[in-house]
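For practice. Any example?
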Amino acid sequence: MDLVQLQRQLVEYRTSLYHEGFLDEQFTQLQELQDENNPDFVVEVVSLFFQDSERLLNELTKALEQQNIDFKRVDAHVHQLKGSSSSIGAQRVQKVCIAFRNYCEEKNVEGCLKCLQQVKNEYSLVRTKLEPMFQLERQILNAGGSVDVPMQ
């Protein structure tokens, strides 16, 4: 596949992530901070999001398995996950976190467990969707191209 085809494929893939609601304008702003001096900026920030999210999801799972659930602690973890997902533009994760926080406020165990499963699913989906995009970007850069291709 030549460079132009790879770049076209990247643009189409990125566009689909926005249309499917996986990403929002915050991700675009993150990409705008990337330059020649720091070409891996977005990958590094998103990788940190992945690491942090894994930790938070594990903490949430443990907290909701307790006999006496500390809803303030659960809410603090969800708030952190909401903030980090918002900062990279992971819109669908962020939206589930909003509902999750409402259930925490109501001390609704069933609602919290349902949202935990939803947030795990949305996190897994966004991770699965972003990794191929980063692979495409690496292919383009390795071929001597630019990933600063505009959205359609």
